[in-house]
């Protein structure tokens, strides 16, 4: 009798478990997502947690179809007047990005922004349109593509001295786009963010002869040169290839040489004609 009661109780427990277990699993499925699965509320770019009163921008930065790991992303707020002319408001957001995938995501206050990415070699890529930031929404796919970025540099001198203020221009062969800079106090110049290829390099400074050079910046990423004088700035032909300081030195040196030559000539003449000195001595004594 007891065995029959235990068996009946066990059978009842099994029946209750088979009825209640599916209900529990269904309730669990509806209340929390399974690990590794994504619900509709957590999918897409809008799933990022945005701070109150903020909107978002996300994208990636590439160079030659490869991710850029280190760069700076900058957003500047802009506004438009009645003539649809754009101006900066002064609000600026800058962030340094380090990402092996080249991706970025930033949050901004609502408004209209211009955007640009800056590489470590100082190449700048500006997004072609302004970006509207709306509270609670993300702007996806704001991507930047750096061109093949190269640097080119060198030094300019004159008679072994560093030459500052030289206008240096670098123009791609067959194009009208000109990159211009000046040498600093150390005679150094540098260009960044260049595309690879052949360029015409031109050095210009008042009082100096222009110098041109054809350079393949991939093969030769630097070029040093020494410029030649054509005269004083604005006074060509004073003393060819000499500045004012050296010109005066030349004049002084020539004057000294002339004085020495005259002195030697007088000495030689007196040596050959000693009576002139004796006659002068006799004349002085007779006058006394």
UniProtKB/TrEMBL annotation:
* One of the Pfam families matching this protein, by short name: CarboxypepD_reg
Keyword 4Fe-4S carried by entry: no
Transmembrane helix as UniProt keyword: yes
Transmembrane residue ranges = 248-270
What name goes with this protein?
A: Carboxypeptidase regulatory-like domain-containing protein
Q: Where is this region: Disordered?
A: 37-56
Q: Which SUPFAM superfamilies match?
A: Cna protein B-type domain
Q: Which UniProt keywords apply?
A: Membrane, Transmembrane, Transmembrane helix
């Amino acid at each position: 009798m007891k065995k029959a009661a235990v068996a009946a109780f066990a059978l009842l427990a099994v029946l209750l478990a088979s009825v209640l277990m599916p209900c529990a699993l269904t309730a669990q499925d509806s209340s929390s997502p399974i690990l590794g699965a994504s619900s509709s509320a957590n999918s897409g770019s809008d799933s990022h947690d945005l701070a109150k009163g903020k909107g978002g921008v996300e994208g990636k930065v590439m160079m030659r179809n490869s991710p850029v790991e280190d760069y700076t992303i900058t957003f500047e707020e802009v506004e438009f007047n009645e003539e649809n002319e754009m101006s900066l408001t002064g609000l600026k957001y800058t962030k340094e990005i380090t990402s092996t995938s080249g991706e970025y995501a930033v949050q901004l206050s609502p408004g209209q922004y211009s955007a640009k990415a800056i590489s470590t070699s100082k190449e700048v890529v500006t997004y072609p349109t302004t970006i509207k930031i709306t509270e609670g929404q993300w702007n996806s796919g704001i991507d930047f593509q750096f061109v093949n970025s190269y640097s080119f540099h060198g030094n300019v001198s004159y008679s072994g001295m560093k030459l500052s203020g030289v206008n240096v221009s670098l123009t791609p062969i067959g194009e009208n786009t000109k990159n211009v800079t000046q040498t600093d106090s150390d005679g150094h110049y540098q260009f960044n963010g260049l595309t690879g290829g052949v360029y015409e390099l031109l050095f210009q400074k008042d009082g100096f002869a222009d110098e041109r050079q054809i350079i393949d910046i991939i093969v030769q990423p630097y070029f040093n040169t020494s410029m030649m004088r054509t005269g004083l700035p604005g006074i060509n032909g004073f003393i060819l290839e000499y500045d004012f300081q050296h010109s005066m030195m030349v004049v002084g040196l020539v004057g000294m040489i002339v004085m020495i030559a005259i002195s030697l000539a007088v000495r030689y003449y007196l040596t050959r004609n000693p009576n002139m000195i004796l006659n002068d001595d006799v004349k002085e004594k007779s006058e006394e």
